[in-house]
């Protein structure tokens, strides 16, 4: 089993790679439709602007093979922007279409507290979660974002509260995503990645 | 709703060594960057900052290699800066493994650099570093590592930087840096209550009480220090336990 990391040039892929390596997992970077179509497991890391990520997915013709793979049941983990990309659209780039694997829009967090939401925050559990197995209930995770998916659905495993509740962990069969950065979240983050690898096995 | 207040050790780096001085002068060696990074990662630091204090062009490859080595040791965010003069410089630092960059002197000289970096990498990756010194009834910005006065008010500059796209402000009190007499609470509170982004306080920390004060009266979102951590004067875990006991939210490492 090898994890295929979508390298969209907009994120720090190296830190995710190192985290997987420390857990003894093999990974490879991919930026072609063929690599995505043939992947055993997929990971979409992402920081920065929604537009930058969606444009790279479209320019490199990765959208279709990625959506097909997720629908086929290939284990998938989206990180940060990699979670937001799953929804219909984002107010950060209203003209672009998201991957439409989850219903709803990504919106700006309300300006009730300092933005970006940057730092360590805790989760509120909503549904049984495989990604959070073995993670302490009061564990902190590292977030760095100004936009978030606000609408919760049956796939929402956990939320975070920062001015409003927003989706922090998504689990829908093989499709998983987290708004925080597990690769930057110390031991708690390592456990989330370990759980994802277990789902891939 | 409440984010944990962050404790951030800072590595002032000259080439491939960590150095520390008093009031930005009188530098002495404090160890190898990667070794200190590994120690802080294990001790529960919330983030790490690496600053290239020499920031000279010919030492750049050495600094990038230092970032790579430090990043390899971390499971927490890494901010790197010093001598970033263009979006290209920023890109190479981020590619080397940093999550955020700091802009300082070059942003004062050409504020559009903040917008350029923010548009390309996102506001969350752009930290505006402000070295501030009290001058009468205001604080003014200093540049070139505290050597020169820039003719700008520090609060005005912080506000302007955020409008241009900075996602965080790192404010260093040049009056307090290296003195171990405590953070500049008034300066930090003035900036923190003016801008809408998180503020990291720096300069002057020694005692746990200094940290408690900067997180309450100083309204800081994060606090940065160097030598007290390097010299093991203040273990991070004990500092966090001290803060937690006073009701300040912190992430206690397991």
Describe how the helices and strands are arranged.
The complex is a heterodimer of chains A (201) and B (254).
Chain A: E1 2-6, H1 13-22, E2 26-30, H2 33-37, E3 41-44, H3 50-59, H4 63-72, E4 76-79, H5 81-84, E5 89-90, E6 105-108, E7 117-122, E8 124-125, E9 140-145, E10 147-149, E11 156-161, E12 165-172, E13 175-178, H6 186-200
Parallel strand pairs in A: 1-2, 1-3, 3-4, 4-13, 5-6
Antiparallel strand pairs in A: 6-10, 7-9, 8-11, 11-12, 12-13
Chain B: E1 6-14, E2 17-22, E3 25-31, H1 33-43, E4 48-52, H2 60-71, E5 78-81, H3 87-95, E6 100-103, H4 105-109, H5 112-121, E7 126-135, E8 138-143, E9 148-153, H6 154-164, E10 168-173, H7 185-192, E11 199-202, H8 208-216, E12 222-225, H9 227-230, H10 236-245
Parallel strand pairs in B: 1-4, 1-12, 4-5, 5-6, 6-7, 7-10, 10-11, 11-12
Antiparallel strand pairs in B: 1-2, 2-3, 7-8, 8-9
Share of β-strand residues of chain B: 25-35%
- Rg of chain B (C-alpha, Å): 16 Å
Approximately how much helix is present in the residues of chain B?
A: 25-40%
Q: Which H/E pattern describes the elements of chain B?
A: EEEHEHEHEHHEEEHEHEHEHH
Distance between the termini of chain A: 7 Å
Estimated helix fraction of chain A: 25-40%
What characteristic shape of chain B results from the CA principal axes?
Answer: globular
Could you tell me the strand content of chain A as a percent range? Answer: 25-35%
Query: What's the story with the biggest beta sheet of chain A?
Result: 8 strands, mixed
CATH architecture of chain A: 3-Layer(aba) Sandwich
Strand order of the largest sheet of chain A: 2-1-3-4-13-12-11-8
Kindly give the count of domains of chain B. 1
State the CATH superfamily name of chain B. Aldolase class I
Q: Provide the CATH top-level class of chain B.
A: Alpha Beta
The CATH superfamily of chain A is identified as: Class I glutamine amidotransferase (GATase) domain
CATH topology of chain A: Rossmann fold
CATH architecture heading of chain B: Alpha-Beta Barrel
Overall geometry of chain A: globular
Number of helices of chain A: 6
Task: Name the strands of the widest sheet of chain B in spatial order.
Answer: 1-4-5-6-7-10-11-12
Got a strand count of chain B? Answer: 12
